[in-house]
Amino acid sequence: MCSVLRVSRSGYYKWRTAAPSEQLQRKEKLKKRIIWHFHDSEERYGSPRIHRDLKKEGWTVSERTVGLIMREEGLRSCMSRKFRISTTDSKHELPIAPNELQQDFSATKPNEKWVADITYIPCRQGKLYLASILDLYTKQIVGWKLGDYMTTDLVLDALKQAHTAKRPGKGLIHHSDRGSQYASKDYREQLKKYDMKPSMSRKGNCYDNACIEAFHSILKRELIYCKPKFKTKQEAQEKLYRYLEFFYNRKRSNSTLGYMSPVRFEQLYYERNSA
Which GO terms describe its molecular function (predicted)? Predict the structure, then answer.
């Protein structure tokens, strides 16, 4: 081989025993950190979020370089398939609240505006439905409940959990679609008991509740459709609890929050306002 390539044997062996260059050593360390962050996020993070985490650690690297290394290593974040089941039953004669939110998804503090919705969760043991409540300021899931049916009790349990956890003051705007569960007498009475102002989307307008719709899309992409279907309802409960309470609320960086987690963003708000 040395003869064909016209190099000396001594030069070849010197090259074999020479230490890797600083550039190669740095790339190897960077690759290990990228692989670590990818698997630490359970294969949910793509190059933008891994790039942000590396910058927090002090790395000087471009997002493009992170993407190239991920491609070399065959690291690809979860991708979901499009699949939708209607979870809104608006064909009823129950009272409809006015649209107080008016697509204004901004908020100035935690527990000022909450948005709620139901989504379908596939499971081999049987259908499941998740009722979620999201805080528009912190982007935190403040309440959720998994159940076999889309009942008023399902959304009520999510609301009660959220109220117990956050204890919001009077006047919080609670926005949802026109589903019969949210328009039911029991739910309206519970909102009144909590001094919350009900708000509902216009008929057939999914953009009026875009933030919670976007969250459910993230949930489907990162947990539901990029993994094997849940075998049992108990497994679904455990995996959703782990994702919502530990990963999404406490760990997952959110681009609208300056790549902080919802819980960290909420903590910073209270730290600033207690000083």
Answer: nucleic acid binding
